[in-house]
Design goal:
285 residues; mainly alpha; Rhomboid-like fold; three-stranded antiparallel β-sheet; disordered N terminus
Length: 285
Amino acid sequence: MGLYDRDYTQENYRSQFSGAPQMRFVSAQLSPVVKWLLIVNAAVFLATFLMPSVEYFTLQWFSVYPTSVGRSLQLWRLITYQFLHGSPWHLFVNMLALFFFGPMLERSWGGRKFLAFYLLCGMTGGLVYPLLVLAGWLDAAPLVGASGSILGMLAAGAILFPNLTVYVWGIFPLRLVTLAIIFAGISIITLLRPDRSANAGGEAAHLAGMVTGATYVLSQSWRAKLRLKIRSGGWEKKMAAQRKLQVEVDRILQKVHDSGIQSLTAQEKRALKKATEAEQRRHRL
């Protein structure tokens, strides 16, 4: 995947995805999270490539390798397998895609949200593959690579920036949404054809990552409404509790006025103390 014509960087370009802000390309400087992902992936690959014993150890303990239910339940593998790669070409293609597509998503969402999204797409791919193995659909083999995360980014980018033009291998211009459809089609065909290729597990991770990436973007509006509803519900409960406490305080104060403070029960004294502490906190704020 080569250089692309960044039409999303033009001043009058607006994403077709509702609510997306205008984006203007300023420099080719890497965004922080993408830079560290590139560094970590390259460092891990060099360590495993130069030291065969390290490579064997990482494949045994850090790849997604569902030879048994016990291994499938070793959840750390869902993260660590994303930083392992089987060959220089495997690493190069994934990191090239991360280099080009990662910064535009990180700058749109922020580093923390982008990193969570990236890892989530990879985790989903690492989760679907063992399920297909345990179901007898695929054979068990070590699954490594960031492709699930990369394809998740591709799906997200295709929804957010569908008209962005990508030059595949620097030659063939394709809209980003078209490229995403092609990759999804390849993954589906690979998984469904009877002879299933040796990389069927990888294609399962690719497809799962793409579904996760698309779902994440398409559900943004729904998730924002849900968060707002939860927060407003919490606020309403808090206000209702305060009103209830105020009614109780008014009753207690009236009782003190009528019968003296010695007439209060232990529970009434605790309620009065609680109200006093709450009032003091409000004044400190």
